[in-house]
Design goal:
The complex is a heterodimer of chains A (about 120) and B (about 120). Chain A has about 120 residues and is an all-beta fold. Chain A has no helices and 11 strands. The chains are: A mainly beta (about 120), B mainly beta (about 120).
Chain lengths: ~120, ~120
């Protein structure tokens, strides 16, 4: 049963520390998304990649957040330094977007629940 | 530009009654439309989607949704609600005219089914 795998599932860290979240997309998927979910803002798109190349990271605070795809099986989201306002659930999602106008489904991981104290 | 609205933050129904969770959308071209469900402390799970063809789409757990182009709506429905359907539901839209594959999600609707 193919699924998007995220680690860690839960993380509590102190303000100022670096946090790295990892995602293994579904094998064969070429598009990876990072979302953040909070009570106040709902679901926000932070960044996404196609064939490992960043397509859009306009939703991401550039000064402290960075997203990369070192290879096709790993996407990372890093926060350095972390702040209490970064406390949220971070979701990775993947899909196969092959052609113009693809209606393929995007599948979500279980999320990384981050608390910054 | 694409957008989606879920006009109700909360929907309450009694078990066994039909349920409807509303969604309206806006796109430049034609839409792909999706429904996801999120149970507490879990990720979003895909329920169903409209790509083309029949306006009535059937999905997981007995849910269905009807695409209405004239009303730009894609309401989620189930004939008989279960307590276990209680969850957060998200509608999402993707404009066919874009090759970015990026979806826009609504703010979510919390469905509570009471015994």
């Amino acid at each position: 049963d193919a699924r998007v795998t995220q680690t860690p599932r839960h993380k509590v860290t102190e303000m100022g520390q670096e946090v790295t979240m990892r995602c293994q997309p579904i094998l064969g998927h070429n598009t990876v998304f990072w979302y953040r979910q909070t009570m106040m803002q709902g679901l926000e798109l932070l960044a996404y990649f196609r064939n490992r190349a960043p397509l859009d990271d306009s939703g991401m605070p550039k000064d402290r957040f960075s997203a990369e795809m070192p290879d096709a099986t790993l996407a990372t989201l890093k926060i350095q330094p972390s702040e209490p306002r970064d406390s949220a659930v971070y979701f990775c999602a993947s899909g196969l977007v092959l052609i113009w106008g693809s209606g393929n489904t995007i599948y979500f991981g279980e999320g990384s629940w981050l608390t910054v104290v | 530009a694409q957008s989606v609205a879920q006009p109700e933050d909360q929907v309450n129904v009694a078990e066994g009654n039909p349920l409807t969770v509303k969604c309206t959308y806006s796109v430049s071209g034609n839409p792909y439309l999706f429904w996801y469900v999120q149970y507490p402390n879990r990720g979003l799970q895909f329920l169903l989607k409209y790509i083309t063809g029949d306006n009535l789409v059937k999905g997981s757990y007995g849910f269905e949704a009807e695409f209405n182009k004239s009303q730009t709506s894609f309401h989620l429905k189930k004939p008989s609600a279960l307590v276990s359907d209680s969850a957060l539901y998200f509608c999402a839209v993707r404009d066919i005219a874009t090759n970015a594959g990026k979806s826009t999600f609504g703010d979510g609707t919390t469905l509570t089914v009471k015994p």
